[in-house]
UniProtKB/TrEMBL annotation:
PROSITE patterns: WSC
Region (Disordered): 195-237
UniProt entry keywords in alphabetical sequence: Glycoprotein, Membrane, Signal, Transmembrane, Transmembrane helix
The WSC domain, residue ranges: 268-370
Name of the protein this chain belongs to: WSC-domain-containing protein
GO cellular component: a single term: plasma membrane
UniProt topology in membrane: Single-pass membrane protein
Compartments (UniProt record): Membrane
Keyword Signal attributed: yes
Amino acid sequence: MQHSFTHSFISALLACAAVTTACVLPTDTLSNNITSGFGILIQNPEYPAIHDQYLMLEAAGGGDMHWFVGGQPPVGVSAFNLVLSEGVLEQGDIHAVIDGEYDPVANTTKIFMTERTDYLAYFTPVYACDPDNDEVQVILAFVGREDFGDGGLICVRPSYDNSYEFRYSPPGNTAVDPGQCIPVTMVVVPAAEQSTYPTSGASPSTTSSAAQSTASATTTTGTTFATSTTSSSSTATATLQHKPVVGPYLTSAIGTTPLPYTDETANGFAFVGCAPEASNADDGPARTLTGSLLADDAMTDGECVAFCASEGYTYAGTEYTRECWCGNSVAPGREPQTTLASLDNCNYPCGGNASQFCGGNSWLSLYQACTPGAACVNAVFT
């Protein structure tokens, strides 16, 4: 028999668990519909920077909300008005989807909230043991990605301001660098109980031996999951595929109008080349520019330059048609490339002006502030 997930139900469940000396998971199956607002606490005891931190949502333009955890200061705002509808995470009119910003090196894809409903992410509530205190808690176990079959996992990777962004790794992924796909547990926290949960990193801990020996259970990232729980939202198995945005190649356009970059010299910034992010470089930090981020579906190079200048930065870089990254230095080994062929990496049209180019998939169209009083000249490509 399925239960409706409510604040009183969870409170009673946790109260009962508190009188035991070990976590014993209930055997009933929870409903895939959670109608009372809740937030999500992220757990992975091996990573104190994200353990026992809330999932944060950051507005990214067009009504989209990107998922982050951690950061100094924290990136985004916590949300306790999430609901689960037939296994799909929702907040008002937006849903959790897995699509975009595909990383071909790590073979991972971004998960975020949007009004679009293609490639929905499906979850199911299950009982689990809290790795900090061995009490029963309810988590959202990942079921799969719409049209791609069941399986895979949700993980995080380093992003800007010491935060971590959320990614999806498909089943059987062997390309993942552990540091670029850190598995996480997503704990359901009823809105009325948010003040009772920790909000800062905790020391690593493990589940008790009694919980680990629970019959018919599987242990992942320090949390014991009931394997008898099933999902009504499972999807048919399909061949793994991705849909990266594809822009026009530029090699044939070199030396013609429009330019393969935007002339922002009148605004005090010169185009210095196409610079790689971590997935297209050998090593180093996840981001080439580690300052502020602006995301806008109507992004242009001019908007990005103006934003970074207003924030006091000397570098501005557009990426993936809609992102603007700022910084005062370029990460070592990520220097912009100035060959004609390199411009093909920055071939995505800007969301706000299709005649301009806003980087590529993990490539930045990079602009640098000109020295006052000196000539402001765009790079020459050979």
